[in-house]
């Protein structure tokens, strides 16, 4: 059963990401769905608002989805989290920092990524690896971080998705970063709204239409 964001129990721009490292195409689908949903909310004003996020638009991927809140430069904690993240951690993750999912050696890198996401703002996509050990098999995962504005208008929230491949095994699972990609939000094109019929197509130029003159003469024909 899917959990609504876990309330149950719940600068490296341009670096190439090797998408084919992820074993299952199914596992990439929630990443792409979240990105498409977020992109559809883009406007000329840039980053979407947190208040625009409607769980009904993400209902197929809620178990992988989370919301982060910035609490300091480079530090963010979970405000909401889906059941998949709770399963990876072996506990409720709400209130925990994002760095809790990472090995100590990777936490500085995650801090730098968060700074970029909030400050640029930017979209971050990460490839993750959790090494095998007693009671655990080697696991791959992917994460996407999509910036959001708070009600105050500052970029201090993140819509994220984390999906893993493989058996979770003993928890908590912690990860190293295998690859990352950062893209500025300004480089992402907002979807174009369809033009109204009056704007394009067969609309007539009203200025060229001349009304008939008012000096009309009635002509009467009589039969002889």
Word description of this protein:
There is one protein chain. This protein is of the alpha+beta class and 224 residues long. The chain has three helices and six strands, in the order αββααββββ. A six-stranded antiparallel β-sheet has the order 2-1-5-4-3-6. β4 (139-149) and β5 (155-165) form a beta hairpin. The protein is globular and about 50 Å long.
Task: Quickly list its features.
3 helices; disordered N terminus; single chain
Protein topology:
Layout lengths: L24 H16 L24 E8 L2 E7 L1 H7 L17 H13 L2 E9 L8 E11 L5 E11 L10 E9 L40
Antiparallel strand pairs: 1-2, 1-5, 3-4, 3-6, 4-5
Helix content: 10-25%
Total of DSSP H or I helical runs spanning 4+ residues: 3
| Ends apart, CA distance between termini | 94 Å
Cα-atom Rg, whole angstroms?
Answer: 26 Å
Low-confidence stretches: 1-26, 195-221
Number of strands: 6
Read across the widest sheet, the strand sequence of neighbours is 2-1-5-4-3-6
Major sheet attributes = 6 strands, antiparallel
- Beta-strand fraction estimate: 15-25%
């Amino acid at each position: 059963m899917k959990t609504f964001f876990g309330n149950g129990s719940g600068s490296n721009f341009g670096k190439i990401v090797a998408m084919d490292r992820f074993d299952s195409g199914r596992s990439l689908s929630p990443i792409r769905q979240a990105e498409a949903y977020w992109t559809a909310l883009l406007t000329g004003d840039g980053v979407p608002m947190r208040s625009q996020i409607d769980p009904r638009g993400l209902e197929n991927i809620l178990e992988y989805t989370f919301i982060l809140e910035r609490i300091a430069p480079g530090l963010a904690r979970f405000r909401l989290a889906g059941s998949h993240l709770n399963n990876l951690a072996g506990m409720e993750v709400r209130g925990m920092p994002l760095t809790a999912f990472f090995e100590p050696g990777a936490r500085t890198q995650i801090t730098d990524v968060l700074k970029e996401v909030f400050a640029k703002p930017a979209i971050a996509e990460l490839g993750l690896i959790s090494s095998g050990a007693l009671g655990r098999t080697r696991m791959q995962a992917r994460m996407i971080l999509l910036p959001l504005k708070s009600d105050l208008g500052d970029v201090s929230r993140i819509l994220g998705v984390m999906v893993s491949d493989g058996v979770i095994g003993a928890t908590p699972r912690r990860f190293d970063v295998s690859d990352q990609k950062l893209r500025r939000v300004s480089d992402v094109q907002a979807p174009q709204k369809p033009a109204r019929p009056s704007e394009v197509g067969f609309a007539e130029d009203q200025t060229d239409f001349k009304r008939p003159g008012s000096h009309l003469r009635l002509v009467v024909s009589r039969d002889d």
